[in-house]
Amino acid sequence: MKKRGLISVAAAAALAAASLVAYAPASNAAAKTITLAFQGPLTGEEAQVGQDELAGMLYAVKLFNAKNKGKYVVKVVRADDQGDPAQAAKVAPGIASNKKVIGLVGAAYSGATIASLPFYKQRNLAMVSPSATRVSITDPAAGAIGFPVFHRVVVTDKVQGPSLFKLATKGVSSPKVFVVDDQSAYGVGLVDYMKPGIPAGQSAGFDSVSDKTTDWSATIAKVKTAGANVVIYTGYFPQAAVFFKQLRDSGYTGVLAGGDGVLSPSFVTLAPASVLEGVRLTAGTVPLADISDKLEADFQKKMGKASGVYAAESIDAANIFLSCVSKGVSTRAAMLKCVKKFKGKSLTGANLSFDKNGDVAGGVMNGFEVKAGKIVFTGPVK
Amino acid sequence: MFGNFLDQFWSLTFGGLSLGFIYILIALGYTMVYGVLRMINFANSEVFMVGTFATIIIIRDVFKFTQTSEYATGPRLWLILGTALIASMLVSGILSVVIELVAYRRLRRMNSGILAPLISAIGVSMVLAETMRILTDSRPVASPRAMEKSFIGKFFDADIRLDNTIIIVAAIILLAILMAFVNKTRLGKAIRAVSMNGNAAKLMGINIDGVVSITFLVGGLMTGAAGFFYVLKYENSSFSIGFELGIAAFTAAILGGIGNIKGAFYGGLVLGLLETYASFFLGTQWKAVTVFVILVLVLYTRPNGLFGEAMTQSRA
Fold it and tell me: Is residue A104 part of a domain?
């Protein structure tokens, strides 16, 4: 009885499976699967930035897959480096040895990029970063450690350093500027590029504070005794929020400014709006909504959320790879060659191509300001 | 440099004092349990961390403050602060008792020695920290500001801030209540008896299990209060601050003499002040180094800590 029952169940299942196959849609065996990767902080303190950039890349891929239905299917593999070089060194080997991946958008952070480069250089994987701004990666004088695989669509800290200083001291008569870095490769680098351009008599001092600090009273005491009226922090937004908060609470009323490490939607959730009012930031990115409202609306429709920082740059980076895919590229060597020769336009309409070191040709630094708890684009820093 | 220090002396001192009181309250968690059980309750640092999150949840989710909300004032402010303080104290206190029941009681019953409860404590500490890490996605959590950090006066050219003052005053009140409890009530007497001689206390009819639970409860209440004050001062928390502050508070307890409430008091104050002064002179990078060098020097000359008597008393 049982055996008969089993046989009839098996027969029914086989029939069902057969009928399913018969009704299956015409197979798209012609569509080629291409795999790209994204590397950035997807968890941890900096997760917001990574998630925003990933969303930009996924949006570009979605549009491409829709346009090339039947021809190509692009998949995205994610690598979470938490914005931390140590973590990056752990995830990069996996991506590098994954033969299917032929291009990488990333890494989002400079420190993580530098830690991942040995693995990607060894396996010849092309990288296009939307946001890693450390100069040494492409600077021949500093070793050009990124050559030949690394490229970036964003302007470097060499430009950002002086721009940040300019934006921070704009409108301030007789500025006395105190600069604090976070002892990270990015933060220290940004200060190094700022220093030569500081006019005599405007510097009120420098400090270097670990990014694990929670109590800033020592630095604040130094700022007060120096009588500074402009304070620039060149680290990342979690520490910037705490530092600015404690600085304002101890009675500081001058200008506060930061670089692109501070520019993040999460920044304004970490301190009261009244404390952050007027904070000036620089970044080599333009908000999607400021490029085109239609684009932002389409992004929100397709991705289910608003675009974040470096969305436009991530879309540009992804589109570089995608344009190569549509030219028939399917190997790492061919992708690297194609990326190096790339000539196209960015979302903002500017020309997009790389110089021999992997830097984007041209590019401008943009200014932002925190107004009523929101980060507002204030135009290029002139 | 020294001139600058004198300028900033009182501001630095107030900051150091409020930090010191936070350390004292956490150190009490360690010291009271050690006094009664001769065991280091490593999980106390995570009890502190949970207390900070309890405060953040009250301010952010129950009272619905955000970074753009208006600050509360007057009776509403006291209501909010009071609720947050009591909530974190209760959450930490209950958590502390539960930890004792789950992780230590059985080992104590079995007379398992010194090592097993220690490892159990470290295990609990990791479970709590990692669970919180998963819940917070490894990110720090910010607390919206409910109370404006206004300046309420000047003291010798240093601005006195409201939050530092509240911490110092409230901590002193809590400590006074604790001292009254330990010295003047029957239960307090029982705790002191158990810490002096556990067997004799049992012979006198004292319920050891009950006393141990009460000790963990009181230690947890104090640690929870520290959590509230920490969030009031720094307005953020993360899954790892238990480790960072726990080490400091534990050091404070050792510095003052472990097992001894008076030791926790002075150890915490000294540590808070020294850390703040050291980071002014040497930079924040040297804070931990300075603290531990001082600890070693003190233990070198007074192995039981500043006020450590031969580990048999838990009285002031």
Answer: yes
Q: Are residues A140 and A244 in the same domain?
A: no
Query: CB B138 to CB A268 under 8 A?
Result: no
With respect to residue B310, please indicate whether it lies within any of the assigned structural domains: no
Q: Say if residue A347's pLDDT is above 90.
A: no
Residue A44 falls in which region: left (phi positive, over 0), alpha (psi -120 to 50) or beta: left
Nearest CB to A272: which of B137, B144, B159? B144
Structure tokens at A148: 């030949």
Contact state of B68 with A213 under an 8 Å Cβ cutoff: no
Which of A178, A210, A215, A279 has the highest number of chain B CBs within 10 A, making it the mutation to test binding with B? A215
From chain A, pick out residues whose CB is under 8 angstroms from the CB of B285: 183, 209-210
Q: Find the Cα–Cα–Cα–Cα dihedral A17, A18, A20, A24, rounded to 10°.
A: 130
pLDDT in tens, A237-260: 888 999 999 899 888 999 999 998
* Number of domain units in chain A: 2
* Confidence category of residue A11, pLDDT binned at 50, 70, 90: low
For residue B59, give how far its alpha carbon lies from the nearest alpha carbon of chain A (Å): 13
- Distance, in Å, from the CA atom of B307 to the CA atom of B264, rounded to the nearest integer, reads 9
**Residue for token digits 């404390």?**
A275
Backbone torsions φ then ψ of A151, nearest 5 degrees: -140, 160
Query: What is the ipTM score, two decimals?
Result: 0.72
Nearest CA in chain B to A371: B68
In a domain, A184, yes or no: yes
Chain B positions in Cβ-Cβ contact with residue A43 (cut-off 8 Å): 137-139
Side-chain half-sphere of A10: how many Cα atoms within 13 Å?
6
pLDDT at B311: 42
Give the contacts of A290 (CB within 8 A, at least 6 positions apart): A377
Residue for token pair 């398992």 = B112
Domain limits at B235? 2-301
Cα B91 from Cα A1, distance rounded (Å):
60
d(CA B200, CA B40): 22
Residues A116 and A202 in one domain: no
Q: Which residues from B are below 8 Å from A372, CB to CB?
A: 68
CA pair distance A259, A28, nearest whole angstrom: 47
Residues in chain B with CB shorter than 8 Å from the CB of A265 are: none
Domain that holds residue A222: 158-283+366-380
How many other C-beta atoms lie within 10 A of the C-beta of residue A218? 26
Assess whether A203 and A185 both reside in one domain.
yes
B137 lies within 8 A of chain A by CB: yes
Q: Which residue of A has its CA nearest to B19?
A: A215
What CATH number should be reported for the domain holding residue A71?
3.40.50.2300
Which residues are paired to A103 by β-bridges? A36, A126
Confidence of residue A309 (pLDDT cuts 50, 70, 90): confident
pLDDT digits (tens, 9 = 90+) for B142-183: 888 888 777 777 777 677 888 888 899 999 999 999 999 999
The pLDDT, as a whole number, for residue A335 is: 94
3-state secondary structure of A306: coil
Considering the domain architecture, whether residues A278 and A163 belong to the same structural domain is answered as yes
Q: Chain A residue with minimal CA distance to B239?
A: A44
Residues A138 and A167 in one domain: no
Band of pLDDT at residue A9, cut at 50, 70 and 90 = low
Give the N- to C-terminal CA distance of chain A in Å, as an integer.
87
**How many CB atoms are located within 10 Å of the residue B146 CB?**
24
**In this structure, is residue A4 part of a structural domain?**
no
